[in-house]
Amino acid sequence: xxxxxxxxxxEHYPEAMTCFINATHSRSTDYHILxxxxxxxxxxxxxxxxxxxxxxxxxxxxxxxxxxGNLRAYYxxxxxxxxxxxxxxxxxxxxxxxxxxxxxxxxxxxxxDISETKAIVFRNVGEYDSAIYYANALLAHNRNCARAxxxxxxxxxxxxxxxxxILYASxxxxxxxxxxxxxxxxxxxxxxxxxxxxxxxxxxxxxxSDIQKLIxxxxxxxxxxxxxxxxxxxxxxxxxxxYAVCVTLIIIGVTITIVLRLTKKHRMAKKRQMQLVxxxxxQGRDELMQxxxxxxxxxxxxxxxxxxxxxxFERNCELLRNSQDLIQxxxxxxxxxxxxxxxxxxxxxxxxxxxLHVLSEKEIRFCILVVIQCTQRQIADxxxxxxxxxxxxxxxxxxxxxxxxxxxxxxxxxxAIE
Length: 418
Description:
Elements: H1 2-9, H2 13-24, H3 31-48, H4 51-68, H5 71-87, H6 91-104, H7 108-124, H8 128-141, H9 146-158, H10 162-175, H11 179-191, H12 198-261, H13 264-297, H14 302-321, H15 326-329, H16 335-345, H17 349-356, H18 361-372, H19 376-382, H20 387-400, H21 408-417
């Protein structure tokens, strides 16, 4: 649910809708969270203009809030249902829903909020004086309510009171971040007052044109999100049957496994496996932290990043070079594990050597020792070679890489950090 909220705030509506749908499939009994999930799905449907589906989602949200015992959220949910009917100019349905709230609810915040719903329905059915009255009632509780300013601007515009509509449209532009509100207000600013300068009208028209382009993009994303929800609603019965089959098969499989495999040997193997998974998770977390650190470093200059990587590289070389058991620390006896250690400490140097150049395992081992700055004696003991043989082998590897032997380590260092 929270990941879906983040995606929604970033205007990734299809992905957000997918997260919300997954949350409804979780079979959670946290009705507070489920109610908020359905409310978010309803908001996306409302933005797209599908008021019937938004109403249905608010019905589900209201049911969840009622089960959770959250009366304030429950009454807000009913008010949201009324908003959808208000957008459809269904005044009778709005009156019925709001009458229920007024008869049952004593929460002053909820009762103040229904003023906006009344203002919306009166504006939509053409009773503009009543719309202005309830917009003023909303402003009495919230002096800088952009939603109330918008209703008044539209009402005054329909009443052909250009000065008042221009005034409230300007207040909406100053206080609202909604693209849809700004689009409507810039329309008023370009049509309702002939006394405005041509420069002001051109400026408002240009702003509205830019906003309409953004709205078109957002509308396409919202339409895709609503399509995902519609497809999911059609698939739900089959999916539930499939879930039941899968759960049954899993239970049968687990039961058979427990009966056949419940021995001490397998319990210990499972314990070791869990420890390995935990170690991999910790390792993955550390790699993720290192990745985040590298991403933060990209905000600085490239030169600074390379210097930091070189410093880290040289430090890792020094730690390995001064370790008590270099062969054990580097997993030398196992080539694959050695490559993993090298990749972790030297920026995937082993993979880079395997991808960019045709080198044997022994030659890659040699390159790693050269990078760490082991002495010829240490290299000779590890490979093994004679000290003179180490020099000849270094010449052979350098020739394969089209390098002077004296430049081999500098080349390997640059390969690792760049």
